[in-house]
């Protein structure tokens, strides 16, 4: 049997090829000569398996997609607090290259977020600078590590943008004027432009993203690259600010933390599930790839990826008919689905009906698919409360879904493999 995913991706591209519209970016002269027919899509699973279709070997400059990864790098190097002092996290609702600075409560001026150019240039300036090497080189090495291959600068794109980077230079000077940049703005802007000129394919992008999907651990090597906190921060700003001034539309229609770039790439990350990348060079008026948006929308719909779709929580974690008195003194609660706050609260509410006596209450967890930390703590707390009412408590937990089952009062419930093991 073959997995249907590659066929699905190929079908997506086939069905989308008809969608035209949009224009090639021309404010970087070299981008105007891109081949508008190129179309590619790639997907990474949580465990780092890559699927792709279309022009998946075609290289293009990463442009603004780089902003998300450089932000992650800098937070990891300096700590979130130091980065937050320089760049905020408020959506700007303006074009990406707006000279936009925000006055915070403390009357401190700083770029609104790291996904617009003023924020991204500031973030770039925070990269610790190795002697005799530009910051862009540090970024290139970091991106290469994530991609699992040596990435290169596109010199033509770099020079083409550098020679016309008047707007980014004026942003740089303005940032320097407010002391947000602490050294030569020309050098920083040039190095930032070079960061944007790193060449990638859609496969590189999903490889890079796998670290965000997998909570900071690169699945290919098992190495932790980013902390949980960094990943959460990056995904947060991608959600609110990743799609330029179309972020609201994107969140409503696609609902995946994302970042796009003016060369025509878009990445989308659903933590714990998938990473997606698309490429098609023609852009809409906000600077987002027209066919890229179309494909992302389709994938979000087909795969049920919208962030606010909610975890398919088993609302029926506990049905009345799943509470059974299997022996005179033994009551079994058969739980199913996921055990998070909502379900644990329901369970504990139901347990309020248990009279004070010396029954044994058994929680059968063999049909639970996931327990998060809150669910675990609430279950263990419930066990202490049941014991305070005189009950004994045991678990059926063949998969050890509750590791280290020990309550705050140091009680360790007996754990059985199945119902048969429960003594009279
Ligand atoms: N290098 C481009 C710039 O800074 C990137 C813009 C983008 O992809 O949004 O103007």
Which characteristics define this entry?
single chain, 424 residues, alpha+beta, Beta-lactamase, Transcription Regulator spoIIAA, 2 domains, 5-stranded antiparallel β-sheet, 5-stranded mixed β-sheet, 14 helices, binds glutamic acid, acetylation, glutaminase activity, Glutaminase
3D architecture notes:
With 424 residues, this protein is α+β, with helices and mostly antiparallel strands. It has two domains: 5-303, Beta-lactamase (3-Layer(aba) Sandwich), CATH 3.40.710.10; 320-415, STAS domain (Transcription Regulator spoIIAA). It has 14 helices and 16 strands. The protein has helices at 5-16, 65-78, 80-86, 117-125, 135-147, 155-162, 166-177, 185-196, 202-213, 228-241, 247-253, 290-303, 341-351, 373-388; strands at residues 40-45, 50-54, 60-61, 101-103, 109-111, 199-200, 217-218, 223-224, 258-260, 265-270, 274-279, 323-327, 330-339, 360-371, 392-396, 414-416. The chain has a five-stranded antiparallel beta sheet with strand order 2-1-11-10-9, sandwiched between helices. A hairpin with a 4-residue loop joins strand 9 and strand 10. The chain starts with a helix and ends in an 8-residue tail after the last strand. The structure holds glutamic acid (GLU). Keywords: Acetylation, Hydrolase. This is Glutaminase. Homotetramer. InterPro entries: Beta-lactam/transpept-like, Glutaminase, STAS_dom, STAS_dom_sf. GO terms for molecular function: glutaminase activity.
């Amino acid at each position: 049997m073959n997995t249907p995913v590659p066929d699905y991706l190929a079908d997506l591209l086939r069905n989308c090829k008809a969608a035209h519209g949009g224009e090639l970016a021309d404010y970087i002269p070299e981008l105007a000569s891109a081949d508008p027919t190129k179309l590619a899509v790639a997907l990474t699973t949580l465990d780092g398996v890559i699927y792709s279709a279309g022009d998946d070997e075609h290289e293009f400059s990463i442009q603004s997609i780089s902003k998300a990864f450089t932000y992650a790098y800098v937070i990891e190097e300096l700590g979130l607090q130091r980065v937050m002092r320089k760049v905020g996290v408020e959506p700007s609702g303006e074009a990406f290259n707006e000279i936009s600075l925000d006055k915070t409560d403390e009357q401190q001026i700083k770029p609104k977020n790291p996904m617009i150019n003023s924020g991204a240039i500031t973030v770039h300036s925070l990269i610790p600078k190795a002697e005799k090497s530009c910051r862009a080189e540090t970024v290139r090495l970091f991106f290469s590590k994530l991609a699992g291959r040596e990435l290169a600068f596109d010199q033509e794109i770099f020079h083409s943008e550098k020679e016309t980077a008047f707007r980014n230079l004026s942003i740089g000077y303005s940032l320097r004027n407010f002391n947000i940049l602490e050294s030569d703005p020309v050098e920083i802007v040039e190095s930032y432009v070079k960061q944007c000129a790193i060449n990638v394919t859609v496969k590189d992008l999903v490889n890079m993203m796998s670290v965000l999907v997998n909570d900071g651990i690169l699945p290919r090597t098992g190495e932790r690259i980013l902390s949980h906190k960094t990943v959460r921060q990056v995904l947060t700003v991608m959600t609110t600010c990743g799609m330029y001034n179309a972020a609201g539309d994107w969140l409503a229609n696609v609902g995946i933390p994302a970042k796009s770039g003016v060369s025509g790439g878009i990445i989308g990350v659903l933590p714990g599930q998938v990473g997606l990348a698309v490429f098609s060079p023609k852009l809409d008026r906000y600077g987002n790839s027209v066919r890229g948006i179309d494909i992302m929308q389709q994938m979000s719909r087909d795969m049920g990826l919208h962030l606010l779709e909610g975890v398919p929580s088993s609302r029926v974690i506990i049905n009345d008919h799943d509470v059974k008195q299997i022996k005179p003194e033994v009551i079994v609660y058969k739980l199913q689905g996921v055990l998070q706050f909502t379900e644990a609260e329901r369970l504990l509410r139901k347990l309020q009906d248990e009279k004070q006596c010396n029954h044994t209450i058994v929680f059968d967890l063999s049909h639970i698919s996931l327990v998060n930390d809150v669910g675990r703590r609430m279950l263990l707390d419930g066990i202490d409360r049941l014991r305070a009412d005189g009950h004994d408590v045991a678990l059926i937990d063949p998969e050890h879904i509750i590791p280290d089952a020990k309550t705050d009062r140091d009680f360790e419930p007996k754990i059985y493999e199945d119902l048969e093991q429960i003594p009279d």
